[in-house]
Amino acid sequence: MKNTIRGQNEFLIFSAAETVSSAVQKMGRYGIETATIKGSHERFLIKKFLEIASKMGLGSNPVWQFTFGRISYKKREKRDKGFLKKISDYFPEFKKILPFLLDSKERVFLVGGSVRDIILSIPPKEIDVMIEGDALKFAKEMAKITGGNIKNTHPTFGTATIEVQGIRMDLARARKDFYPSPCSDPVIKWAKAEEDPIRRDFTVNALIFDLKNALLIDVTNGLEDIEKKLITPITPISFYEDPTRLQRGIRLAVRLGFELSEDFLVQVEGVKKNLFMEKLPRERLFAEDKLILEEEKPSLIIKECIKLGVFPNIFPFIPPPSQKAMEEMDRA
Hints:
Structural class: alpha+beta
CATH topology of the largest domain: Beta Polymerase, domain 2
CATH superfamily of the largest domain: Beta Polymerase, domain 2
Number of helices: 15
Low-confidence stretches: 1-9
Helix content: 40-55%
CATH architecture of the largest domain: 2-Layer Sandwich
Largest sheet: 8 strands, mixed
Shape: globular
Distance between the termini: 55 Å
Oligomer: single chain
Strand order of the largest sheet: 5-14-13-6-7-10-9-8
């Protein structure tokens, strides 16, 4: 390890094998928030995420597993008055729901895959809504006023699913997540809307649209990654928190025709080294596997899993299928 000075920014340079705990200690000693590793000065170690990794029990892991291509994100806002029309084009009955959403005293946002798909001119399958307030109470009021039916609720996570005017809507309260250990359920803390995207899986799924102000808000460079056609995890600890994001990312990349970013590939290697997929509850693993097989071209996803060397981790009880078997999957 050595110090280099660049203007007013001081960087520590670690070997790739330095442990997370050691790096956190040294960065704290020098009062430095960002470091790099030897031979990879375009990738960074961010102290706050190394500290989280250490608290998750990953202090003895080598720091290369937590390098990241971005030091921070810059919030971008874009007014888009045509966004609501695009939603109504895909869901004509949405116009009947919109007055309730706009008249609510809560801040209401469209989020997640539905925002991504509308930007990409892909018909979304459902509408994801985030509330800066009690989403369960919001769902009950919405059902009462619009005649909708609440399908399920999860009070711990502040989520509810409601069907209104034939439209399925997933409602969620804005929150921050903390994972005590890899593969665990998160500890929930309610948050402001602009803080919520950081807990999500990929930058392209973290865009939020402020309904009342017709404002598209990007706090994780999601628009840039959509333009570049990249699937990028939001933080360098994303897959350690929830390894099923690996499956979802590959599935999403194949479906959209996107590439997996370098940040994605680094975390894939880390997950493989730590055997995190093997620590997942089987029902969680198999639920994601089922979604892979339900895609239009599951063979392409399986080929990508084989290419990345994660097929045995994702499908632990079966050998890689033959080309003929994969063709039959696509026809099923």
